[in-house]
Structure formats: structure tokens, C-alpha cells
User: Fold this.
Amino acid sequence: MNNLPKLQNSQYIHNYSLKDKTFMKVGGQADLCLFPGTIEDLVLFLRQYEQKDKIYCCGNWSNVVVRDGGLELLLSLDNLCNEILFNKDEADSVTVGSSVLMMKFIQECVAKSISSCEQLYTIPGKIGGMIYMNAGIPGFEIKDVLLYITAIDKYTGEISTIKVSELNMQYRRGNIPERLIILSGTFRTSHREQSAMMEHITKTREKRMKTQPITARTCGSTFKNPSDDTRSAWQLIREAGAHEIIIGGARMSEMHSNFLVNDGTATASDVISLISSVQDLVFKKTGIMLEPEIKIIGRDIS
Ligand SMILES: Cc1cc2nc3c(=O)[nH]c(=O)nc-3n(C[C@H](O)[C@H](O)[C@H](O)COP(=O)(O)OP(=O)(O)OC[C@H]3O[C@@H](n4cnc5c(N)ncnc54)[C@H](O)[C@@H]3O)c2cc1C
Assistant:
């Protein structure tokens, strides 16, 4: 890593801790983290840096578990993609940088009586991560209001615009090609009374606080709900008795059996072992193989 591209307005940080960043509070560190300060620097970096397949981009870390051995190169867009632009020349749309927290975006919309993503207020992601995951709640997903994304190709540095219709987004899967790093999303907007949005947000927040351990060390739902069964993942886990498995400091939450929680002492290895043990037991008892919603990335300790 001695031959890193020389960048004018960006910052490299070596041995960047990820454990504090991830919502699960486990995992190793990034050998190197790049915070590009301008698009020009990002393009230059992507054109010159040779190990493109080692570049990993993340959002708010609310759906990612990093293995205990960490990862090679983290690209953070935190200093770059932070704008919210209510489009004037293009009626009824807003372009939001991928590093903007969904909650912040919604707050700006509500202040202007603009409806867009308020249904997703309680999900703790950033715009890039939420598009990548096609985040949603029952009856509403981000793809329902997404018009197009702007993304940069990590292999060429080329920037392009891709319409949502070209992405084939599905339940908890944005289908974003591996080579693309999302820079922004443009969403459809409409007028809605502030009070109606506030009421909706308050109700959703209250419901979530009653049913989910949102203050725990967790990445939310561990598994996707199966498409070919009427039972939710949490029901299958409970039915199989898999909510009682404990591995090290990792267990399924008593409040919501699809939320894996770290009691503060878990390693990434505990978390990953628990995910596969739950999968195995549910499969053995119900014949259904649960698909993880959580993304597991990085290296094992060598
Ligand atoms: C308490 C709690 C409740 C939750 N409830 C819900 C819920 O109701 N519905 C739901 O859908 N999810 C929920 N989640 C999961 C999570 O918040 C969502 O998946 C969210 O979309 C993740 O966004 P993020 O910014 O944290 O992404 P991260 O976790 O940082 O990353 C997720 C994925 O997106 C990729 N990614 C991130 N940014 C970019 C980018 N700019 N370009 C390319 N790829 C990128 C990452 O590489 C990774 O693969 C919940 C999580 C928690 C902790």
C-alpha cells in the first residue's frame, strides 16, 4: 500500500476500526479507509488503485457484519455524497446523496410538506445502503418511490445514471451490480400535510419500540421472510426452537426472534455461527432454508 494514489482533497486512514461502526458491534478493522473529499479524487483513485475487487463501500453499517479478520479497503462516502436537492427543473422529485441518513432526508421533506419516503422513517440506514438493500416495511419499499440512481463504476471510474426499471429491484435486494457504488438516488415526491406525516411517523415509531429491540446491538432482521411460505422468519425460528440457541455472546432476541443481538461480548465468529445454527435447525424442523438478510463481509482471522 505504499503506492496509493496521491489525492488533493481526501483522507486515508490506516487500521480503521469497524467494530464501533457496525450496529452489531463486532468485527475486525479495515487495513485502509479512504474518505474522498471530491468526485475528482474518487475518479482518480478508482482509475489508479489496482486492487478494485478489494474495495468495499458501506453506508450506516446497520445491516453488515464484518468478520473478525476485518477487510482490506473501505471506501467511505461520508465526506462526499451529503446533499439533498429538491429539483426545480424536474417537477416533483428530489435527489439525495448516498451518505444522507434516511431519517434526516425525511425530516427535511416533512418540514416542506413533501411526501416521499416517510414510511421508512424508523429504518436506521443511509440512502445508498437503503437503495442497495431495497429497504422497506410491509407494503412499501424504497423502489416504490425511486426514479433513478447515479453510480460510479469502481473498475473504470465512469459515472452513469440508471433508471429503477433497469435494476429489477426485489424484496430486500436492490440488484445493484457489484461494480457500482451508488452516489445518489432520485425519488418521486408529492404534497402531503405535515400533520399526517408526523402522525404516521409517531405511530410507526411507537409500534417498533414495542415489538423490536431497537436499542440493542443488532442489525435488525437477520433473515428474510421466505417467499414460498405464509410464516414469517421469526415464526419459523420460534417454531423450530432456534430462538433458544446461544453462541458466545450472540443470541436471538426474546422480544423478536428474528433479531440477533450481541450481549456485548460476542465476536463476529459467534454471530456468524449463530446465523448458520439457526438456519440448520429451522431447515431440519421445517424444511425451509432461511436466507440471511444481513450481509457478512471481510476475512476470517488467519
Ligand atoms: C433496529 C433495526 C431495524 C431495522 N429495520 C429494518 C426494516 O424495517 N426494513 C429494512 O428493510 N431494513 C431494516 N433494517 C436493516 C437496515 O437498516 C437496512 O438494510 C438499511 O437499508 C441498511 O442501510 P445502511 O446504510 O446501514 O447500509 P449498510 O448496512 O452500511 O450496507 C448494507 C449493504 O449496502 C451496501 N452499500 C451501502 N452503501 C452503498 C453505496 N453507496 N453503494 C453501493 N453499495 C452500498 C453495502 O456494501 C452493504 O452490502 C433494520 C436495522 C436495524 C438495526
